[in-house]
């Protein structure tokens, strides 16, 4: 018998149906030469400190840092988990071969391998690796099962991540709690959690410490068009008013009219982080709720594997895209123009070198019906479908006009833009998306200016005030985590920075949820604010290694290198052991009498405001 182990009962029953294992048994399905069983997500976890050394159970500074000679796993203490594990263990002892059918990603690999390891599996193992759960994809996946050893580096990266989080999280949490906590209040510190909190705290301090500054800009109106002076703004009104008087008496002369045609490519397909950011921006859906929605759509076979960090498709997906587009019946009017010729194939969409395990999130091609979908799932599917359709539309073509002029010794400039062909913007009914940053002034249609023309004008001095940066929202915080704190709009630069982002696409939402639960951040409308406890915790941590997004991003880059087989796991773990030892020593020698009093309120997070 061939034993298939999936990550969820619902997925297990679906795969069992496809394989013909149609007889329900206790905790598994049977038939056609297959047993199909399942986990409930994580059945195993790394051991607790007391499992290694009984003396590590009490929290005491004298026992830190706690570093086991060898890490081990154990079953999660739950009756239901124990029962299901025993079912799996029994089937493993009797089967001839195992097919690992866990989610095709790093976390899924760890979940399944830990269960098989704990059960003492000694049978041949192969791996089902699919990007969607459609019947066609599953059947194709079973006809091309991967070798178990091919995913060894993926598993190694996963256990390094878990061990790294254990070393830093458990030791640093006990260390800071015992040293600085008040009245047994636990101070939660984590490898990704703390630098993420630091991003929110540092942004909040930047806003609170911001001192607004007035300045004045010189503008003038000529032929009902507003021109801006090319010189910098004036720091005081008197200097600005003097410039106004100088240009008021001088004729306004058009020096140059330059017209340049340009194109805007369609926004990139979604990876998980950009989808979460867009759903938060457009529908105010939280990051965790977006993950739940796209996971639900994946399990309903409507979208592909969600926990991805690429915005590209592989070349072999191109022949399937026409069929996927035709399956989107509710979007027939948008798809129809694409059927008139050969489907566009852009290097910004199809690039094998930019895809490792899974491609970008797209519809699967299964007939779409909104019946049975939650509101969040409907909204998220709409975003995915819209983005997929727009990828095959032509670029948006425009003509941009830049007009330069002068009055006296001061130069002026204005710009305008004419859309020649909306292209992909038609999919969004002419609206700009989050990926397109265009100054609204540039969208003006300008009069037909001629070089050398001159005429009267009306100068004016406009008062402006510098503005602080904006508070993070869940969407902008996710993007900051993805790029290790570097806020960038350029998509190509964003792709490059992903290599050293903090956290993984599948875990970033959970990190934000943890910060809510620990009462380190709260939500005011869409803005994220750090609580006093969150601010105090970041202030009390002197070690940049614990709270720097960029340094944490370097660790994440090393984990990705371990996954790629280009970096040694022993070196990664060794560095973390060395680091927690140094941090422990530093904190122990802190002679200050600082203390953090955490807020005891309920986590402040509002449900989606739809």
Topology overview:
Layout: E1 2-6, H1 9-19, E2 23-24, E3 28-31, E4 34-38, E5 44-46, H2 49-52, E6 73-75, H3 79-94, E7 97-101, H4 106-118, E8 125-127, H5 135-143, E9 146-147, H6 152-180, H7 193-208, E10 214-222, E11 225-229, H8 237-248, E12 252-264, H9 272-283, H10 287-299, H11 318-327, H12 332-335, H13 375-390, E13 396-407, E14 410-421, E15 454-455, E16 458-465, H14 474-482, H15 491-497, H16 505-517, E17 521-524, E18 527-530, H17 532-540, H18 544-547, H19 549-564, H20 569-588
Parallel strand pairs: 1-4, 1-7, 7-8
Antiparallel strand pairs: 2-3, 3-4, 5-6, 8-9, 10-11, 10-16, 11-14, 12-13, 12-15, 13-14, 17-18
Structure annotation, total helices? 20
How far apart lie the N and C ends? 50 Å
Mean pLDDT: 91
As an assembly, this protein is single chain
The helix/strand class is alpha+beta
Strand content: 15-25%
Shape verdict: flat
Side-by-side strand order of the widest sheet: 2-3-4-1-7-8-9
Describe the largest sheet.
Answer: 7 strands, mixed
Radius of gyration: 29 Å
What features would you highlight for this structure?
610 residues; alpha+beta; seven-stranded mixed β-sheet; 18 strands; 17% strand; disordered C terminus
Structure description:
There is one protein chain. By secondary structure, this protein is of the alpha+beta class. 40% of the residues lie in helices and 17% in strands. The protein has helices at 9-19, 49-52, 79-94, 106-118, 135-143, 152-180, 193-208, 237-248, 272-283, 287-299, 318-327, 332-335, 375-390, 474-482, 491-497, 505-517, 532-540, 544-547, 549-564, 569-588, and strands at 2-6, 23-24, 28-31, 34-38, 44-46, 73-75, 97-101, 125-127, 146-147, 214-222, 225-229, 252-264, 396-407, 410-421, 454-455, 458-465, 521-524, 527-530. The strands form four sheets. The protein has a seven-stranded mixed sheet, with helices on both faces. A hairpin with a 2-residue loop joins strand 10 and strand 11. It is flat and about 95 Å long.
């Amino acid at each position: 018998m061939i034993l298939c182990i999936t990550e969820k009962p619902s997925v297990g029953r679906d795969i069992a149906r496809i394989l013909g294992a149609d007889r329900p048994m206790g905790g598994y399905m049977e038939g056609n030469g297959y047993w199909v069983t399942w986990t409930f997500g994580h059945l195993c976890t790394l051991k607790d400190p007391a499992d290694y050394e009984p003396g590590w159970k009490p929290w005491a500074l004298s026992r830190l840092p706690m570093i086991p000679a060898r890490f081990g796993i154990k079953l999660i203490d739950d009756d239901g988990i124990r029962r299901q594990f025993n079912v799996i263990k029994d089937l493993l002892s009797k089967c001839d071969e195992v097919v690992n059918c866990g989610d095709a990603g790093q976390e899924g690999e760890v979940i399944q391998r830990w269960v098989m390891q704990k059960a003492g599996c000694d049978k041949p193992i192969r791996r089902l690796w699919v990007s969607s759960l459609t019947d066609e994809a599953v059947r194709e996946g079973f006809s091309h099962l991967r070798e178990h050893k091919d995913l060894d580096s993926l598993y190694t990266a996963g256990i390094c991540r878990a061990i790294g989080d254990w070393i830093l999280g458990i030791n640093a949490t006990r260390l800071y709690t015992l040293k600085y906590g008040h009245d047994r209040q636990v101070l939660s510190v984590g490898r990704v959690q703390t630098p993420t909190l630091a991003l929110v705290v540092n942004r909040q301090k930047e806003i609170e410490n911001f001192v607004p500054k007035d300045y004045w800009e010189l503008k003038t109106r000529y032929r009902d068009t507003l021109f801006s002076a090319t010189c910098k703004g004036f720091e005081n009104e008197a200097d600005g008013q003097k410039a106004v008087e100088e240009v008021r008496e001088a004729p306004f002369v058009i020096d140059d009219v330059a017209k340049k045609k340009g194109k805007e490519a369609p926004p990139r397909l979604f990876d998980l982080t950009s989808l979460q950011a867009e759903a938060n921006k457009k529908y105010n859906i939280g990051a965790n709720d977006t993950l739940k929605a796209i996971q639900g759509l994946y399990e309903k076979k409507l979208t592909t594997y969600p926990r991805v960090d690429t915005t590209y498709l592989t070349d072999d997906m191109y022949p399937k895209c026409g069929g996927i587009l035709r399956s989107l019946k509710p979007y027939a009017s948008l798809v129809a123009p694409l059927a008139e010729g050969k489907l566009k194939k852009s290097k910004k969409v199809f690039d094998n070198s930019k895809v490792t395990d899974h491609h970008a999130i797209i519809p699967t091609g299964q007939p779409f019906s909104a019946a049975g979908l939650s509101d969040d799932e409907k909204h998220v599917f709409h975003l995915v479908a819209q983005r997929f359709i727009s990828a095959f539309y032509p670029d948006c073509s425009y003509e941009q006009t830049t007009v330069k002029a002068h009055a006296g010794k001061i130069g002026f400039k204005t710009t305008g833009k004419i859309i020649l062909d909306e292209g992909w913007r038609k999919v969004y009914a002419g609206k700009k998306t989050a990926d397109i940053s265009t100054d609204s002034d540039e969208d003006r249609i300008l009069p037909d200016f001629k070089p050398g023309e001159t005429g009267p004008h009306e100068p004016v001095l406009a008062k402006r005030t510098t503005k602080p940066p904006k508070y993070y929202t869940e969407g902008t915080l996710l993007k900051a985590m993805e790029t290790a704190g570097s806020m960038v709009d350029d998509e190509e630069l964003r792709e490059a920075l992903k290599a050293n982002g903090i956290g993984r696409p599948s875990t970033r939402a959970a990190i934000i949820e943890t910060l809510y639960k620990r009462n380190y951040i709260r939500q005011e409308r869409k803005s994220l604010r750090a609580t006093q406890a969150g601010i105090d915790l970041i202030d009390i941590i002197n070690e940049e290694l614990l709270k720097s997004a960029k340094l944490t991003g370097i660790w994440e880059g090393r984990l990705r290198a371990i996954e790629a087989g280009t970096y040694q796991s022993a070196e990664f773990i060794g560095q973390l052991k060395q680091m927690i030892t140094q941090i422990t020593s530093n904190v122990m020698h802190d002679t200050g009498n600082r203390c953090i009093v955490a807020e005891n309120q309920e986590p402040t997070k509002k449900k989606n405001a739809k």
